[in-house]
Amino acid sequence: SIQVTGAAVSKPGKMTLNGPNASGSVELTTADSAADIASKINSQDLTGIKATARTETMIGFTTGDYVVEISTTNATSNSANTATAQISFSVPALGGSAIGSSAEALTDAVNAFNEQSSKTGITAKLNDAKTAIILENDEGKNINVNLKSTNTIYMGNQATGQSAVVSVKGTTTGKTFTAAGQVTLDASRSYSVATSSGLKVQ
Q1: What pLDDT digit, counting tens, does each position of 51-85 carry?
Q2: Is pTM beyond 0.70 here?
Q3: Three-class SS of residue 158?
Q4: Which residues have a Cβ under 8 Å from the Cβ of 45 and sit 6 or more positions away?
Q5: Cα dihedral sign for 150, 168, 5, 196?
Q6: Are 133 and 60 in contact (CB under 8 A)?
Q7: In this structure, what are the phi and psi dihedrals at residue 62, rounded to the nearest 5 degrees?
């Protein structure tokens, strides 16, 4: 199988699928989520190439009270099928770290995300080190986190608060980051994928 990591399209273009049964092509746009990319590839079912999508991102927190708006989106999302929920939780000062560094410190946050999972499609769990939270969407839609409180969220693989932390500081009007997903391709026999010169999937 092939994994297209962080399947966000930064430049539109054509992807050619040379499958075990036939060839086909799809046009990708900058609005496409991993779910959209997988759906387009699967629409070319005669190729024999199958695609699945999944989104996963890690986030960490400083101590304090948080207000966060969460949602999932893809290229076909609109107000009728995009579910948004606002959640509130607290991260207490445990473990002697500026970042909630124990399962106990992050329990309130995990519960807050999961209480809205049936609406948003986003589930939360602790990372293995129990220093941050992993957010997941099994369909591969984009995960959007809009920080409404004026504290800080640490994003991506740096969510544990290690060196070169990437952070977002919230504002009273909100500040959003979006996590794109991953597309996995598979087929019963060998296949190849080619892209036009302008297409950039990252």
Answers
A1: 999 998 888 888 889 999 999 887 665 444 567 89
A2: yes
A3: helix
A4: none
A5: positive
A6: yes
A7: -85, 175
- The separation between the first and the last C-alpha atoms of the chain, rounded to the nearest angstrom, is 17
Three-class secondary structure of residue 46 per DSSP: helix
Q: Where are the alpha helices (H) located in 31-148, listed in sequence order?
A: 34-43, 103-115, 117-120
Is pLDDT at 165 greater than 80 in this prediction? no
Q: Please name which of 106, 18, 121 lies closest in space to residue 66, comparing C-alpha atoms.
A: 106
| Total residue length of the chain | 202
Chain centroid to Cα 201, Å, comes to: 15
Q: What is the pLDDT of residue 135?
A: 93
Tokens representing residue 160 in the block:
């544990």
Phi then psi dihedrals of residue 135, to 5 deg: -100, 140
CA distance 92 to 72: 28
Residue type, 128: D
**pLDDT, position 10:** 77
Provide the H-helix boundaries in the chain: 34-43, 103-115, 117-120
